[in-house]
Amino acid sequence: MAGRTVHIVVADPSALVVAGLREMLTATGYRFEFYPVSTLAEIPHWFKKYSIDLVILNPVLVFNIEKQFLSIKSECSSARWIALKYNWVDENLLSNFDAQISLFDSSTAIFSAVKNCLDQEKNGEDTEKQPLSERESEVLRWMIMGLSNKEVADQLSISTHTVISHRKNISLKTGIKSLSGLTIYAVVKGIVDLNSLPE
Amino acid sequence: MDSFFCEKRYYSNDKMRRNSDKSISRDTILAELVASNSYLLLLLDHFNIDLMLQEKTIGQVCNENQIRPEIFILFISLFNGDKSISKVPYKGEDILSIINYLRSSHTFYNEEKYPQIRQYIGQINLLNKIPEIVLLDRFFTKYFDEVREHLEYENSTVFPYIEGLASRLKGESTASLSLDYSVSQYRDHHDNIEEKLSDLKNLLIKYMPVGNDKEVRRKLLFSLSELEFDLHIHSQIEDFILIPMVEQMESQLNSRYGR
Questions:
Q1: What kind and span of H or E run contains A127?
Q2: Is B192 helix (H, G, I), strand (E, B) or coil?
């Protein structure tokens, strides 16, 4: 994951703030790709298209639609979420974010918040070097046989949530996201037998 | 601590840096840019600009090929990895240049990249007889079927729709627009086709057992990277230039005629 572009969705009603944030982060010389949106509902679109690392969201966009926010956030949980505060924001709401920055923070403070947030993901990177665990191989085997997340969960007597988190780790470790790509990986690694593949 | 951020820029090459840093204008000699970023050869191809650029400036080349220099420079900066694409004001006549560009990149994928990659996979299959290669072959075929379906949809539905909007805006056509389509559907339709390409590269780099196919595999990886680069620019053009422009056109027409 080292050295790749960091993909950031910036959700804020102010074009000025978005441009300023873009300018500030770009000036650090690292590689960022920005996807500005002005409403909460536009966020998932970018998750479908790109592997988004970070969402920087103005909590104003969430007021009165907290439920929708939580469901979008759990749907897009592969990214880290940072709150961009203009002024006071309810603590309960803030507890849903991985970090927060304020309109009045220095560029150093903002950059280090972004960096810290992304470095948390590095815990996942340490596991990247190891091969799949027995459980992950098992999940992969069932996935390749065509079972849905729910069916794999039932088969292994674990929750669907756990299955999803195994799937995420499998992709993180192997660098391969699609099921058809993972199938080839599993054949090469002897996790499944070539002749037992469903067609 | 620094692992996430270890590489600072797309282009570490000094010459390229200079190009992307220095502002490119219509007086810039195009050949110099192409010499320092060879990916720009793809840009030339998709705009149907022939080589032997001689000492021509961007302004001259654009004039000969009826492209507005601002849009041409915008595309060059995408190729050079610059991110300030939102700053350029769009004009109506650009839409047709952009569609021409996208159409010829479709031809490039179908008629040049696809057969080339197929051929390399076929060669690997001969040199390195392991069953996994057959899976890889199947993977790529399925992947490209998806790509082709997307390209076909753009060629037959999206582009004609946009061309229709353009001629209505110019007052050349009064034919009524189909009410049940808008570019927002297109936005939803086009999903990530870069992901499987990256899977393919990772499989070849990390996991596929090597036999006598070292050289062909390297060529295949270069070819895949070129395709990946081109597709990435392609979707940036669609997301950040084409779709916002068409949304503007739609709202102009809506306010003019109602819909």
A1: helix A122-128
A2: coil
Strand (E) positions, chain A?
6-11, 32-37, 54-57, 80-85, 99-102
Q: Looking at the predicted complex, does its ipTM rise above 0.85?
A: no
Q: Taking the model in full, what pTM does it have?
A: 0.74
CB contact under 8 A, A188 and B207: yes
**A54-57 sheet: strands from edge to edge:** A32-37, A6-11, A54-57, A80-85, A99-102
Residues of A in contact with B139 (CB under 8 A): 180-181, 184
Using DSSP, how many helices (H) and how many strands (E) does chain B show?
A: 13, 0
- CA-based diameter of chain A, in Å? 61
Model pLDDT for residues A153-171, shown as the tens digit of each residue: 999 999 999 999 999 999 9
Phi, psi of A43 (to 5 degrees): -60, -50
**pLDDT (tens digit per residue) in A7-48:** 999 999 998 999 999 988 888 878 888 999 989 999 988 888
Number of A/B CB contacts below 8 angstroms equals 94
CA B222 to chain centre: 17
Q: What is the dihedral of CA B35, B39, B41, B47, to 10 degrees?
A: -130
Cβ-defined contact of B139 to A184 (cutoff 8 Å): yes
Phi, psi values for residue A9, rounded to 5°: -90, 125
